């Protein structure tokens, strides 16, 4: 099957030019001006940007967490991602205590197979650093799972002590893997939570008040120091606070191999959302929590100046009805997480390119190219080049998108961006050359998504 996309404005992390793209057998075969080729399908992209498909390296589909399971599975989640212009996701398999990584990986393959409609990979959450688990990291790498998430938060569930984190970092450094860190001081947060509850503070806003930005800054600094000592690359996930950003900046300025992602919620939403009445603050209960406004501009600046390299979503949706309500009388029981896999590309285009904070090339870089490079998928994914997968988004820079729970495709009963209008609109999405979204029509199929066996870490 050959497809030719005519006359679009191709944008990569480095280039911007008008050309035609010939797609053959799922890959970009030829790029050129007025290509004299015939194809099975001609797509007119006049007036549209042709972008590399978005890559979201932080999703939680079908994830058991907080006494319930995230409400999108790999079918609904990847479909929603596609509508939003994302063509690859990397989700998190969980090695839970007493179990092996292999068991976890097989479980997550079963969750995704037959359901995912876009390509996907897995990181592995490490919840114990015992010798057998550390040994198993090599086997994961051999199977294309080349990154591992660890936590200084959630004591008793995912948190591993500093010695364990250090051992895993050493091992990652040896085998070419990347450790991603959820950096908040979970032990101190638990004390603050206990004290808040003892004083009868049960409303959603206490989730944020008991997880102060200083505790994110402290944990971020700590794991950066551990990674330096272990001589391992490090990636900080869902960075939300200026204090954490300062720790990343300092380390990068000293030449350390440290990277960080932030998420749209930390750029667009704020602590004020927790003050919404009638338990609506629960919609925004996630960890780290939303911060006050001054943190937002620091994060945008970090994206512009390459102190932050990636925007991912941490998509982890829970319905208000039945799920968030578990914490009606106790904020600590509200399942942590919020939806975002569908809104990411549009929000970052709007707040970044539309508002003049990011160039178009930088927008592509933080939403597709850098995620692909840092997580071993480049140049198969994350750019538009001869030989790359034809994962493409036809994006209308003059369109407008209004966001609502009624029109979004995520399986959740609210949208954190309800009523917001963003500049730009996704018009068409191709995954490995196949049109899977055409306007408001979904043409993807459950199970067509392929597992991406990722390579080991290479300095981008
Ligand atoms: O609140 C969040 N972030 N939920 C998902 C799990 C995690 O820590 O990323
Ligand atoms: Zn996390
Ligand atoms: Zn997460």
TrEMBL record:
The modification N6-carboxylysine is found at residue 149. The keyword Hydrolase applies. GO terms for molecular function: hydrolase activity, acting on carbon-nitrogen (but not peptide) bonds, in cyclic amides; metal ion binding. GO terms for cellular component: cytosol. Carbamylation allows a single lysine to coordinate two divalent metal cations. Residues 49-435 form the Amidohydrolase-related domain. CDD domains: D-HYD (cd01314). The keyword Signal does not apply. This is Dihydropyrimidinase. The lineage of its organism: Bacteria, Bacillati, Bacillota, Clostridia, Eubacteriales.
